[in-house]
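Box S1 | Example of a co-folding query
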Amino acid sequence: MIEMMNANYAAARAAKLARVDVTAVYPITPQTSISEKLAEMVQKGEMDAKFMMMESEHSAMSALIGASYVGARTFTATSSHGLALMHEMLMWAVGARRPIVMPVAARTIGGPWNIWGEHHDVITERDTGWLQIFCENNQEVLDTVLMAYRVAEDPEVMLPIMVIEDGFILSHTVDIVDVPEQEKVDRYLPPFKPEYPVDVKNPMRHGGLMMPDWWTEFRYLIYQSQEVARTKLLEAEKEFEAIFGRSYGGMMEYYKCDDADAVLVVAGSAAGTAKEVADRYRAEGKKVGVAKLRVFRPFPAEEVRRLADMTTTIGVFDRSYTYGDGGAMFNEVRSALQSTGSVMKDYVGGLGGRDVTVKFIEWIFDDLLRIAEAGKADRTVEWVGLKDGTGRW
Amino acid sequence: MYKTYKDLPAEPVASQHTEDIMTGTWRTIRPVLNEDKCIRCYMCWKFCPDMSMIVEKEGDYPHVDLDHCKGCGICSNECPRGAIRMERETL
Ligand code: SF4
Ligand code: SF4
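Box S1 (continued) | Returned holo structure for iron/sulfur cluster
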């Protein structure tokens, strides 16, 4: 059924459709309305789940780890400082192999205080072992939450997944969303059946001390599961497409990349703007493409390498910055493309809620086309739109 | 026991029972029992936090499971007869 909703409501609706059993939340802007919607649905009896109002995000994640142990399908949402406060438990969820699905309304982290969107919060958590999927629009958020459970709960994966939506840009912007029928979702998503549920009749030790003699091996299993997740993500999307008729290009979507003079790698909602600009440029005969980085963990190195066969010039748009080095996405794309001879440049922008407009993307494409013609980049990193008094922007 | 990572369950659950974990290697001092002083009151058995003071059957002298005893010295401290001396471990 077609409805109008923002990405937060789309995420909450997905949780309901996924028949989530336990949700433990602590509200934080711009995620709050996910929690509110869940509370409302549970209170009205529309959603058959346990709603737990926690005293912090750290507790929310801890509660879900516990609930997941008994076989409950678990859900929460967070953002920014809340995600940072969860950090310890994010790591624990991975080590305990709990398939928790969590939308993150990506937002900057203070100080100074700023509640608006960027990717620094999620990029900071890239090494926790959570799978990370960046969504372009509200429909993708709803669909990805459903796919995420399929992948997370797969016995060969058993890892938590963050479904990332851009704070405010998606979380608070209403768009058309096709809400799938419950019966179809049930067909797509069987109930969660953990291999080792906590059971009083069959006592087992969970999460106890792990000595150095087997620690490496358990970490290796997590590494393996992340690798397996690559195929599982593709399978989940293929089956999703078969039932619901929608798909998102797997790990990386190549939009008009084939014969492009220059391609911009971009994650999240800005990918939509970039595609729009690419269409306009193509109409003018300017050959640009967009590579949407949909899955950031596991990192799609193979898919990134394929870009080298399509184009010579590759720009990466980073909506965060790794201080003391380039943007995180740029650095990872660059290491995947090493020895391919691609000319590369990092574009940093859209920080702390600054809009990524059509004009912004146009500037990047123009710059990339100049680089493609020159055969080399003028600099490695450009903070786009920086008020530096040079008039460059 | 497991031979390679392939034998492990994905979830680190029941991977090793505490009996299998040789925490005795952590010890720097070990309890040594003097049976001449011992009155078999089993206070040491009762207080050992690691269940490492073993009494096979009522009436026996207790003995120490050195595979698991961490050498905390509680048994020695609690013994009303001073029958347990803590001795430094040497290699
Ligand atoms: S507490 Fe002392 S006296 Fe009592 S059983 Fe133990 S060693 Fe013997
Ligand atoms: S030293 Fe500590 S662990 Fe060892 S037997 Fe005595 S009480 Fe138990």
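Chain B touches chain A at residues 2, 4-5, 8-18, 21 (CB under 8 Å). The mean pLDDT of chain B is 90.
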